[in-house]
């Protein structure tokens, strides 16, 4: 057994077997580690956690790290929240904002949102990393988002508008949804010339920022991965994208797996960070205005977060916790297993 610590975040330690439909790691082929650290555990659903637990050696320790106040996993369950509430494992909570972090308004306002308090939306008196830009309707919001991404943020903070700035929307649909904002930002930041291809309702051209929206184990690109188009070859019927410096080729018929990524949904951003984040928050997003959604979006920004929209919409999101509850028996089962283990220990 190795004495190394294995850290698995967005990596794929148990290795999906595309042909068999299962995982290559499991009871008969466990991971080689003494301590397994799993980050971003709020994103892990019940079935994936079960598969992971089967692959953890009996002699290894498991440390899971995550934030239960973010959006829950896309798949079923609320594994991290259930593990914590069960009382079956020791839990450490990081709750204190230290002096250095207190200078970061992103962190301060994220804590306010998480506590059900509307963040400070007033214009900062000095330089800040958190801003609110008012917009009373969708047309105004989109116009201000384009101005922020294309001009104001690059000029003020020295950030690249395509590579460093990410717009995160509560919804895909609507006038300020990810789809509409994507089209507007693409036209403003990287207008397509003659070298382009139109497929599946989108236009793709060299320089575009794109997102993979399904797992492709052959190409080794996965749902949520962001890349940049380097070439479109109409004669060969293919384009090339770079993901973390690695070139990946797509036939034009495979482009249903890619979408422009100037704007994305907050759900798609989970587990990612960006130098700057711009988030439209409008009452037209009412169905999706929830505290954990806004909190997740705000905590994606490393250097800058800008909310664009209506103060009323921000207040609605902060006060709405209806999306938090999922019905599960995992916590109950873990508590029962702990009780049974203690009784067996007393009996022996």
Please tag this protein with its features.
single chain, 10 helices, alpha/beta, globular, 348 residues, 5-stranded antiparallel sheet
Explain this structure to me?
This protein is α/β, with parallel strands linked by helices and 348 residues long. The protein has helices spanning 46-55, 79-86, 99-102, 105-114, 138-157, 178-189, 266-269, 291-298, 311-319, 330-347; strands at 5-8, 35-38, 61-64, 130-134, 165-169, 197-199, 202-204, 209-212, 226-233, 238-243, 246-251, 258-260, 263-265, 274-281, 301-309. A five-stranded parallel sheet has the order 4-15-14-5-13. The chain has a five-stranded antiparallel sheet with strand order 11-10-9-8-12. The chain has a three-stranded parallel sheet with strand order 1-2-3, with no helix packed on it. α2 packs parallel to α10, α4 (105-114) packs antiparallel against α8 (291-298) and α5 packs across α6 (178-189). The longest helix is centred in the middle third of the chain and has 20 residues, at 138-157. It is globular. The two termini are 30 Å apart. The mean pLDDT is 90.
